[in-house]
Design goal:
The protein has helices at about 1-5, 20-30, 45-50, 60-70, 105-120, 135-145, 170-175, 185-195, 210-240, 245-250, 275-280, 285-310, 335-345, 370-375, 390, and strands at about 10-15, 35-40, 75, 85-90, 125, 155-160, 175-180, 205, 315-320, 350-355, 360-365, 365, 380-385, 400-405. It is an alpha/beta fold. Strands 3-2-1-4-5-6 form a 6-stranded parallel beta sheet, with helices on both faces. Strands 10-9-13-14 form a 4-stranded parallel beta sheet, with helices on both faces. The structure holds nicotinamide-adenine-dinucleotide.
Amino acid sequence: MVLQRAINKNLKITILGMGYIGLPTGIAFARAGYTVYGFDVNTDVIETLKSGKIHIVEPDLQEAFEETLKSGKFIPTLQLEKSDVYIIAVPTPFKKNHEEKIADLTYVEKASEMVGEILEENNLVILESTVPPMTTRLMTDILEKTSNISRDKFMSVHCPERVLPGKILYELEHNDRIIGSEKIEAAELTRTIYSAMVKEGTCYLTDDITAEMCKLIENTFRDVNIAFANELSIICDKLEINVFELIKLANKHPRVNILTPGAGVGGHCLAVDPWFIVEKFPNEAKVIKEARLINDFKPRFIVNKVDEILERNKELTIGILGLAYKPDIDDLRESPAMEIAEILRDKGYKVIACEPNVNKKEVCKFKLYSLEEIIEEADYLVLAQGHTEFKNKIAKLKNSKVYDCLGLI
Ligand SMILES: NC(=O)c1ccc[n+]([C@@H]2O[C@H](COP(=O)([O-])OP(=O)(O)OC[C@H]3O[C@@H](n4cnc5c(N)ncnc54)[C@H](O)[C@@H]3O)[C@@H](O)[C@H]2O)c1
């Protein structure tokens, strides 16, 4: 019966957490024809949404939001109400003031308790947050305990999110999804619901732990491969050979494809998710942990090189080209380029920056300049991010003194 209602899109869906993931997911489900309640504990977030505005920066989302709000398919709310389906998309940061990097699951636990308090038999609860393995079972334990309903009588699923900020709406409708559950009927029901939204992608079914690990290893794969390239850059520095030339030549082999070294690894996914495996398997996840440490060390390695090249002359002005954590975005969170800028400033250098994706005069007390201005203003440049603007104007840098983290020059 629930399956038939899902096919008819006659199910009430509530999403807990109206952030970068929950809000676009709610809008995409509403566009697919479901009635979606967008619940958040943050009053400001819900008030903003109720006033017709979104509170996150994401292309095309405002227009899509307005459409679904107008059609009555998407309803922002501060009141968690009984629904057929609950989707949990709350934060999973690291624990604060903890020496080891360990997932703080208090948001997931709290959201599970809130759902447990209104849960009914045959309800479906889907965890979308990125979590360490076994967390979906922890959610089921909490739901069972809080609701007093046996786990045989409701359904728990993990369906991790793998969208790219800046392309979220498109990727929600085009990316393949992994749906994991201890119960096949729960996974199948979830597939029916998500298939309405995932127009171009395929929904693959598996168990909950495989789904949790799948999300984590996707980002870990990238992190480990980048760490290999970064480690090579450190070794080549000692050998006094050009790492970019070395990698280019090695990649001539038909089965070798080494990535490009850079300033490090940042953002809130690649630099975070591998630790969720390490925390559970500290003795086994050796490569994964070492890769994290290598990528975390890279900004400091670059600072030491620059300090050495400049003979510690603190009279000099250093210009950082690119502060964001990856090309062509404005997100500075956990950015290795930002870390380079901050450590150089702490060492006593005057540090200025050029970040073409940020439309401000200053960020974190770093004055922002155009590329042309910073070439004039700085004594030494650090090319930390491969923004398209820099690639397009690379010839302008040829006469400047530059530490090129990316091999673009
Ligand atoms: N942002 C991304 O690009 C991305 C990509 C893939 C996966 N993820 C994962 O998705 C999850 C959510 O990330 P995000 O970026 O959307 O976070 P976010 O911080 O943007 O939003 C989370 C929202 O959840 C709300 N919240 C907290 N507790 C709540 C509760 N009990 N009930 C209702 N709302 C509650 C917060 O107020 C906030 O508005 C995380 O696990 C993250 O790792 C994020």
